[in-house]
Amino acid sequence: MQKKIGSKFIREICIAGPCIDVTMKYSMRGSTQKRQARKNPSSDAVKKNNDRIARKRLTRLMNANFYPGDLHATFTYGGDAPTPEEARKEMEKFRRRLSREYSKQGKEFKWIEVTEYKNARIHHHMVLSYIEPEIITKQWKAGHVRFVSLDRSRNYRKLAEYFLKETTKTMREPEARTKQRWSASRNLIRPIIKREIIDAREMHQTPRTFKGYEIDRDTINRFNHPFTGIEHLEYMMTSTDPVPRIKQWRKGAVVKRDETIKRAEEIQITLDALEGWGFI
User: Tens of pLDDT along 170-222?
Assistant: First the structure.
């Protein structure tokens, strides 16, 4: 018989390639205890929370889809710098040409791309599945390309942070064409979040390491959610084995309806606030 989710602590686990990120938090769903007062977070708190969620999502995508030896390429322009709209069209044409080159070699073209132009000459960063750099350089007809191979850490959290550094600024400009922080190919693996009930004591203990994994201490983060005031604990761990032991999390009771969705409906928060919950 499945446990009923009431006033419980839950653990969210997301497996992305060799990495597992964990979030533990208190669930007020079904509780008879008095809820905390509605939060009215400052705009800075909302932005900070949205940035945290964006970093987590992009890190998961990179970890699930790219490997040591894949490429981080930087594309720059020769001559006069294009406008952001011209640069977008140039990048679209380039991706179509490059996609044909991957198809010729029977390879799958996976990519994530960001464009930077705030306080800098416009350029693009792209992480992409490996193909000979000469092929990429030949297809980029607008300027120059610089390459860096993805390292052996297999956790590309810092690369995700780097990608978001400038787009976080440009997307909030009033004249911004899009509020997207990055563009990505449709064939990317999209990691799934699994949930289980845990004992309340686990929330306040030292984060638990799974067999065959080690915790990245820089990712341990205890905080209160700016909207709900609910305490959260987040951290990441990376496989120490060449082939990760855990491919899919199956343990525990599934939370069919995340308590944060219920909470969002109750307080009728705006779409901008909903982004802070991670549902947009």
Answer: 665 655 555 688 999 999 999 999 988 888 888 888 898 889 999 999 999 99
Return the axis-axis angle of helices 157-170 and 43-65, rounded to nearest 10°.
140
Torsion on CA atoms 234, 240, 246, 247, rounded to nearest 10: 100
Domain co-membership, 200 together with 261: yes
Closest residue by Cα to residue 122 from 74, 91, 148, 84: 84
Nearest to 112 by CA among 49, 175, 190: 190
Residue 124 is assigned to a structural domain of this protein: yes
Which SS3 state, helix, strand or coil, does residue 33 take? coil
The alpha carbon of residue 43 and the mean position of all alpha carbons in its chain are separated, in whole angstroms, by 21
One domain, residues 150 and 167 = yes
**pLDDT tens by residue, 122-167:** 999 999 999 999 999 999 999 999 999 999 889 999 999 999 987 8
Q: Are 61 and 187 in contact (CB under 8 A)?
A: no
- Cβ-based neighbours of 218, under 8 Å, separated by 6 or more: none
Residue 48 lies in a domain: no
3-state secondary structure of 53: helix
Question: Closest by alpha carbon to 30, among 10, 51, 5?
Answer: 5
Domain region containing 140: 65-184
pTM: 0.80
